[in-house]
Amino acid sequence: MTAPEPDGIVWHTSSYSGTNGACVEVGWHPSSDGNGAAADRVLVRDSKDRTAPALTFSTTTWRAFLVTLNPLTTSANV
What we know:
By secondary structure, this protein is of the alpha+beta class. It has one helix and four strands. The chain has one domain.
């Protein structure tokens, strides 16, 4: 995890990513719900081009995506 940027977004890089920077980062406003998940949106960006626009997803869509990746995960614990 990195320090918050000026806009307050905290970006997290996957622990599975290597040192080559070929991965995506997930961002949220830490003050949104106190649990590290955004109350209203999740941002995703390319770690190789951090100045490019980020993709924005609702938390409902993001949870559905995570559950699809891991069917043992429920939307309640994402």
